[in-house]
Design goal:
Strands 7-5-8-1-9-11-2-12 form an 8-stranded mixed β-sheet, with helices on both faces. A 4-stranded antiparallel β-sheet has the order 14-15-16-17, covered by helices on one side. A 3-stranded mixed β-sheet has the order 10-3-13. Strand 14 (394-399) and strand 15 (403-408) form a beta hairpin. The chain contains 15 helices and 17 strands. It has helices spanning 29-32, 48-57, 61-64, 80-86, 119-123, 145-152, 156-164, 192-206, 230-235, 254-287, 319-322, 347-355, 360-364, 381-384, 450-466, and strands spanning 2-8, 36-38, 41-42, 71-72, 90-96, 100-101, 129-133, 213-218, 294-300, 323-324, 326-329, 337-339, 343-344, 394-399, 403-408, 411-416, 428-432. 29% of the residues lie in helices and 16% in strands. The chain is globular and about 60 Å long. It is an alpha/beta fold. It has 2 domains: 2-384, Alkaline Phosphatase, subunit A (3-Layer(aba) Sandwich); 394-466, Arylsulfatase, C-terminal domain (2-Layer Sandwich). Helix 8 runs parallel beside helix 10.
């Protein structure tokens, strides 16, 4: 069976057409929902690089040293594309990988990583064919294949100028927000997601047709800057709906609301762009007779707060940052079903491997050094096939050295790691998601929930106890050639 994994960047769980109370129509993404959607998919880390390296390896970020966007994935870690290659698949990686974050934040423009010169290194991760984008903001430092595309057209430095003028990132509203939400200033065909869509379709056309294919197609929207071409912005109504979830400091200021309404519009318009590109890919598969033999998965690395709880961007433990869309179209199970059980983003990794006839643990493990055989991802194939209603009782997530959380079907428990007194202990939150879906009422001191809180605390400790960091090796043996 062919496998196509389409990924967006920073797409909220409720910003896809099939979702309950959807905020934007996505008729083509909804075609993938002909199989099954998982309405409670939680990323294992709501930051780009940690989530993406976890997906590649099927491990939690704390196992592979990527809990923060700081440093690089160790390329000695087994990956699922390597396992697919070994099983006879032709594999391609198109778009944003973000496995490397070598440079610190004060690195000057153009002083990052020459990704375009590292194609062989990226191919070694399990891709026969690679065409890589850094991402929108990261392309101001790195030099990737998309940068090369822009440079050939004399657009690289104008593009970098434009991106930098959109302002810096922050987790809370500030004066920089007003700089963003500006339409793409260049030809529509040069937008990073238009180019990525074309490269995905080219890979389908140019694949080794004697083998089944796996293609990872990774778009860069709706990540900041929110930069839709004007045509897509015109599709999106200019609305001023004051439905922001209040933050710990109360409601947003009227000034910030007006800016966020503009950003919401641009954010949703970039999703319309993605939907059009995904539609072209699906049409190509259908016209080529490939749709009936291709597993298609659509998800995102993390969400976007967009003003809820008084926050913007990601890295938050709230649902808007933590939960992502997940739709899986398995050609043998087109049931248009919705599953509400807890799911982790890296369960996609195990699902892909099992769909290829591989055992995820065996495919991703090494016998040495220690702890390389602890693979926490779980395949969703039994749920797709109707053999099981769920594969997890809870989902785990972590972020930087700030917090860790456990989310079950009804509750969410979060432990905050920044505390100084071991006797006082950490701050905690506990939400009853059934009765408080906006996660506004912290029940951690409510004795009525003492047993449930204890259950979640013990699951968090269990996850950490059972998944220690994997050990690495680099010294050459004298007997190796």
């Amino acid at each position: 069976m062919n496998i196509l994994f389409l990924m967006t960047d920073q797409q909220r769980y409720d910003c896809i057409g099939y979702a309950a109370n959807s905020k934007v129509p996505t008729p083509n993404m909804d075609r993938i929902a002909e199989g099954m959607v998982f309405s409670h998919c939680q990323t294992v880390n709501p930051i780009c690089q940690p989530a993406r390296t976890a997906l590649l390896t099927g491990r939690y970020p704390h196992q592979i040293g990527t809990v923060q966007m700081s440093g690089d994935l160790n390329f000695d870690t087994p990956t699922f594309p390597q396992a697919l290659q070994a099983a006879g698949y032709w594999t391609a990686g198109i778009g944003k990988f973000h496995y490397l974050q070598t440079w610190p934040w004060n690195t000057p423009r153009g002083g990052g990583v020459a990704l375009a010169d590292m194609r062989a290194d990226m191919q070694a991760l399990g891709y026969h064919h690679v065409w890589e984008t850094s991402g929108k903001q990261l392309a101001c430092r790195n030099y990737c294949d998309y940068c090369d595309y822009l440079n050939e057209r004399g657009l690289l430095e104008p593009f970098r100028d434009w991106v930098e003028a959109r302002g810096t990132n922050s987790n809370f509203p500030n004066s920089e927000l007003a700089k963003d939400g500006v339409p793409w200033p260049f030809d529509e065909e040069t937008h990073i997601d238009n180019v990525t869509g074309r490269k995905i379709r080219e890979a389908i056309d140019q694949r080794d047709s004697s083998k089944p294919f796996f293609i990872f197609g990774s778009f860069c929207s709706p990540h900041k800057p929110f930069d839709p071409p004007q045509r897509f912005l015109d599709m999106e109504p200019d609305e001023a709906v004051d439905d922001f979830i209040p933050g710990e400091k109360g409601s947003l200021s009227e000034t910030h609301k007006k800016v966020l309404w503009k950003l919401r519009r641009s954010y949703k318009a970039t999703i319309r762009l993605l939907d059009e590109e995904i539609g072209k890919i699906l049409d190509q598969l259908e016209s080529g007779g490939l749709l009936q033999d291709t597993l298609i998965i659509l998800s995102s690395d993390h969400g976007e707060m967009m003003g809820d709880h008084g926050r913007v961007q990601k890295s938050s433990y709230y649902r808007e940052s933590l939960n992502v869309p997940l739709a899986i179209r398995h050609p043998h199970f087109l049931n248009r079903a919705c599953n509400e059980s807890p799911v982790e983003l890296t369960d996609i990794t195990a699902t892909i491997l099992e769909a290829a006839g591989l055992d995820p643990r065996s495919a991703l493990s090494k016998s040495w050094p220690a702890f390389n055989n602890l693979i926490p991802c779980v395949s969703l194939l039994p749920v797709l096939a109707g053999a099981e209603s769920s594969v997890r009782d809870y989902a785990f997530s972590e972020c930087q050295h700030n917090w860790q959380c456990i989310t079950s079907a009804r509750y969410k428990y979060t432990k905050f790691l920044a505390y100084d007194d071991p006797d006082t202990g950490p701050n905690e939150q506990f939400f009853d998601l059934d009765n408080d879906p906006s996660e506004s009422c912290n029940l951690i001191l409510n004795t009525k929930f003492a047993d449930a809180i204890d259950w979640h605390r013990r699951r968090l400790q269990y996850v950490l106890d059972q998944t220690p960091p994997i050990q690495h090796r680099w010294a050459p043996l004298m007997g190796e050639s």
